[in-house]
Design a protein that fits this description.
Elements: H1 12-77, H2 79-84, H3 87-95, H4 101-112, E1 116-121, E2 126-129, H5 143-150, E3 155-160, E4 166-176, E5 179-188, H6 191-199, E6 203-207, E7 213-216, H7 226-231, H8 238-250, E8 256-258, E9 261-270, E10 275-282, H9 284-397, H10 401-426, E11 437-440, H11 441-451, H12 453-457, E12 462-466, E13 473-476, H13 478-495, E14 503-510, E15 513-520, H14 548-558, E16 562-567, E17 573-580, H15 584-589
Parallel strand pairs: 12-14
Antiparallel strand pairs: 1-2, 1-5, 3-4, 4-5, 6-7, 6-10, 8-9, 9-10, 11-13, 14-15, 15-17, 16-17
Length: 590
């Protein structure tokens, strides 16, 4: 019995149910995203539209209020001129008989609708008035009396009352034989407009040419500038600040704040003495209209969400029934799997024995590969040692021990190098090395050529070496770097063995990277893609095992560089090694 013989449970309905559930969840998420987008767009569009409508209405209202003020001022401006030419008033001032003057002023007030009318003699004493309580008062120091006394035309003055607010007065001197005998003062009642404006929710203020508020629905504003008036407000509570921040976010950016509430500001010029009227409209009506539409939209999306959740609940019940049926099938499958597991455990024991045998074979193969690598890398130093020993023997026979000691020192250096090579071959399985230091590539090249000197003497090969005058510093392991250069030179010698007039060109250049190129005029490379594979070689059996370039490529990777090969255009092969250049800053840090 095997796993393929065990019938699997029937998952397609469950998977279909899960797919449907995910589909419904996607619908719910889509509804939420669409609802947020629609509500956001609707709020922005309706707020802008209703704000524009409210602003237009406020502008029309300000224009109407401006006309009312101008009409009132113009209607009262002619009264001083008419009364200053009234013969009865002139006669009364001349003969100082004021028995009927107050009654005449009261009659004129009723016909014209002025706030108050006063008749003053040449000394500033009130001799007739629509308000009899004013009779006998001395207004000789009043600004409107002085202004009327000094001018022969009608003069308009704005005077601040001690009780608060402002008094608006037209004054004109009364002349008799071109002599001033009195002054007519006509008061203009503009405060009635403040009372009518206060019924409306908007705040309205009128400023004079100096920017001082002379009319306002907010009594605290009178006498202040507009900036000072807007700064007058009580400190709001934390809840009110939070609600205000929410309201400001939902509306367009407010023009100003009145009593801590965002408002829309409308400025209009009153064509009278440089006056200006400013109206402040709240956003309450705009929010009410926008919120009504948003409430309908939210209700519609809530209904869609409710339908989607109803479908999800139905799917959940259906999937629960499917899971219960699958659980029963899985219990039966579990019992069968227990029997299958026992059979598998027996097979695994047999497999473990086979794996141990295979592991032993792999170890033997690895030892063989390492032995071949050691023999390949030690071949060159051994050949050099043989040459130096023969030379030392000959020098000793000729009684030249000092020169023989030099050969022995070179043999000692080669023995040290062989020890370093064996230590490095042990670490080929891991990345990097531990003996990194600043190295001059020129010195490495000279040392490698010295190592190759015995072989170069046996061959008539022309060596062309091009190196810069300055040092070419890299961060590397000197022994391993020389090992790569020796492998490249040895390959070049082998490639030119059957070539007439063999030649090897060595080019060292320093730019963004350090580049060392070794070019020969041999037969070239037939298979570039296999060049750096282990145990691949074009040499005859016994001449090489195919590990030199593979080892050299691995060393260059450990040193942070790379080794490349290509065929030269005129024949032969070019091997190029690249290493990061060691700059002055890196050298100083080292």
């Amino acid at each position: 019995m095997s796993l393929s013989d065990i019938p699997a449970p029937s998952p397609p309905p469950a998977r279909a149910g899960r797919r449907s559930a995910w589909w419904l969840r996607g619908v719910v998420a889509g509804i939420v995203l669409v609802a947020v987008a629609v509500i956001w767009i609707t709020n922005a569009w309706l707020t802008a539209r209703f704000s524009e409508t409210t602003r237009n209405r406020a502008e029309v209202r300000v224009a109407l209020y401006t006309g009312n003020i101008l009409s009132e001022l113009q209607r009262n401006s002619v009264v001083p001129l008419l009364l200053a030419r009234d013969p009865a008033l002139i006669t009364a001032l001349d003969v100082e008989n004021y028995a009927l003057t107050s009654a005449r002023l009261i009659s004129a007030q009723k016909e014209i609708g002025a706030a108050s009318i006063l008749l003053l003699d040449a000394y500033g004493r009130v001799v007739a008035a629509t308000d009899r309580n004013e009779l006998g008062s001395n207004l000789s120091q009043a600004p409107h009396y002085i202004a009327g006394l000094r001018s022969k035309d009608t003069v308009f003055t704005v005077t601040e009352r001690d009780s608060g607010g402002f008094e608006f007065t037209y004054s004109r001197s009364v002349l008799l034989d071109n002599q001033v005998v009195g002054v007519i003062l006509v008061g203009v009642d503009l405060s009635k407009f403040e009372r009518s404006w206060s019924v409306i929710a908007d705040a309205i203020a009128v400023t004079d040419s100096e920017g001082r508020i002379i009319l306002a629905t907010e009594p605290r504003w009178r006498g202040l500038t507009m900036d000072e008036a807007l700064a007058v407000r009580s400190a709001p509570s934390a809840i009110r600040r939070a609600l205000q921040a929410t309201a400001d976010w939902a509306n367009e950016p407010p023009d100003a704040y009145v009593q801590g509430e965002a408002v829309m500001r409308i400025d209009s010029r009153v064509p009278f003495r440089g006056w200006r009227m400013t109206s402040f409209s709240t956003y309450d009506s705009i929010r009410e209209r926008v919120n009504a539409v948003l409430a309908l939209e939210i209700m519609g999306f809530a209904i869609l969400m409710a339908l989607a959740f109803y479908q999800l609940s139905r799917r959940a019940r259906f999937q629960t029934r499917l899971f219960q049926r699958e659980s029963a099938e899985l219990r039966q499958l579990n019992a069968r799997l227990q029997r299958e597991i026992a059979e598998r455990e027996k097979a695994q024991k047999d497999l473990a024995v086979a794996e141990q045998t295979l592991a032993q074979s792999s170890k033997l193969a690895a030892l063989g590969e390492m032995s071949a690598a050691v023999s390949h890398e030690l071949n060159q130093p051994l050949a050099a040692m043989k040459t130096y020993l023969a030379g030392a023997r000959l020098l000793l026979q000729r009684d030249r021990p000092a020169e023989a000691m030099s050969s022995f020192q070179r043999i000692d250096d080669l023995i040290e190098r062989m020890g370093a090579i064996t230590r490095q071959l042990k670490s080929y399985a891991r990345k990097g090395g531990e003996a990194f230091e600043p190295v001059d590539l020129r010195l490495c090249l000279s040392s490698a050529l010295t190592m190759m000197e015995p072989q170069l003497r046996t061959r008539a090969v022309r060596i062309v070496r091009t190196v810069p005058r300055g040092a070419v510093m890299v961060m590397a392991d000197r022994i391993r770097l020389e090992q790569v250069i020796i492998n490249l030179l040895r390959n070049a010698l082998d490639a030119t063995r059957e070539t007439h007039d063999p030649q090897i060109e060595i080019l060292l250049a320093a730019g963004e990277t350090a580049r060392l190129s070794v070019r020969d005029n041999g037969h070239g490379i037939s298979e570039l893609d296999k060049m750096f594979e282990p145990f691949w070689t074009t040499k005859k059996p016994g001449d090489g095992v195919g590990l030199g370039l593979a080892i050299s490529s691995g060393i260059m990777k450990d040193l942070g560089g790379r080794l490349t090969a290509r065929n030269a255009p005129g024949g032969g092969a070019v091997f190029e090694m690249q290493l990061p250049i060691l700059g002055n800053e890196a050298r100083a840090a080292e």
